[in-house]
Design a protein that fits this description.
alpha/beta, Rossmann fold, Dihydrodipicolinate Reductase, domain 2, 2 domains, 13 helices
Length: 359
């Protein structure tokens, strides 16, 4: 049992599904973290698009509980007293402070890099800060005070396993897999003969897709994950090095969400035909990312029905690392790749791991 407890100040950005769940988990696991690791993650800041709650001594429990209720009710933090402008945040980053980004914002990369430069750390589930131009993002891959496990595979130990291989002298040759639970669910339904339009509507109604399902169907989210894996493997690729196949034609990109959903039936025959053609050869189609040192592809690919990729159903992820050590059979990681609870738990694990290093 650990007797001394080291306090690690944390500023959390994001109070959506993942952020709200993480806020709850941090409060619920205080005693466990102190007992098992000798650490206290002390929330000194909590921010969303509306502003920032901040107290260098730690946000009071009653305020954190109020923030938790606001998150559950989909309210922004400006419904609470003491809100201050989000623009104050850069001046609050200091030695030992960990900035955790569980938003989907495209503008937090500079803040995360500032947190590291100030002698603190950065933890993220947000993929955007890692997928810009390499020259703008390389610091987040090269500095040891950064954790980003949940950007690929939610709570699955994907990034950690890849780094372990590299740290032990291994070298990645190719990485492939199904990196989207949403598109895995779609493909499994299409394989069973359900029309494309019905599967899209069904996935949207279950909350598997973004409000605009084209955010998932475009393949860009999978491409971001593939790029993060490539850069972690030591391949400084750009997004332009990946060929991405969207699951709808360019002509449908300009439609409103309602217009797209109404027109989706026009694609039913095309995707039924593609899956039927694959099935006639004992294959099926999965939305697969493949990446190597020179680039990669993201899109529908034929796989044997009896293969691990062909057997995937529901929102499962599957990642295979082909490396110098694992040349005959790849190292495989598979499991649930989405969900607020497993993602928040993964971010919490990153926070505790980084806090141990900082302590």
């Amino acid at each position: 049992m650990v007797t001394d407890t080291r306090v690690i100040p944390v500023i959390l950005l994001g109070t959506g599904n993942v952020g709200g769940t993480l806020l709850r988990l941090i409060q619920e696991t205080r005693a466990t973290a102190a007992r098992r690791k000798g650490l206290e993650l002390r929330l000194i800041g909590l921010g969303d698009i509306s502003g920032l709650l901040y107290d260098p001594a730690g946000l009071p429990d009653d305020l954190l509980q109020a923030a938790q209720r606001a998150a559950e009710q989909r309210q922004t933090l400006d419904v609470l007293p003491g809100i201050r402008p989000l623009e104050d945040l850069p001046g609050l980053l200091d030695t030992g402070v960990v900035l955790a980004d569980v938003t989907a914002a495209k503008s937090t990369g500079g803040l995360l890099q500032s947190a590291v430069a100030a002698g603190g750390g950065a933890v993220m589930a947000n993929k955007n800060p890692l997928t810009g131009l390499w020259q703008d993002t390389r610091l987040l891959f090269e500095r040891p005070q950064v954790r980003y496990e949940c950007t690929v595979g939610a709570g699955l130990p994907v990034i950690r396993s890849l780094k372990h291989l590299l740290d032990t002298g291994d070298q990645a040759v190719q990485i492939e897999g199904c990196l989207s639970g949403t598109l895995g669910y779609l493909c499994a339904g299409l394989e069973q003969g359900t029309p494309y339009s019905q599967m899209v509507a069904q996935a949207r109604s279950l909350g598997y897709t973004e409000p605009d399902p084209r955010d998932d169907l475009s393949g860009h989210d999978v491409a971001r994950k593939a790029l993060i894996l490539a850069r972690t493997a030591g391949w400084p690729l750009e997004m332009s090095d990946l060929v991405v196949e969207p699951l709808y034609p360019t002509a449908m990109a300009g439609l409103s969400v309602d217009e797209f959903l109404a027109a989706a039936h026009q694609l039913d025959d095309e995707y039924a035909s593609r899956f039927n053609d694959a099935g006639s050869e004992e294959n099926t189609l999965r939305y697969v990312a493949q990446v190597g040192p020179e680039g990669g592809t993201v899109g529908l690919a034929p796989v044997a029905k009896a293969s691990p990729l062909g057997a995937l159903h529901g929102p499962a992820n599957y990642i295979a690392f082909h490396t110098r050590y694992y040349s005959d059979l790849p190292l495989v990681i598979s499991g649930p790749g989405a969900g607020p609870l497993v993602t928040a738990a993964g971010v919490l694990d990153d926070l505790l791991d980084l806090a141990s290093d900082l302590a």
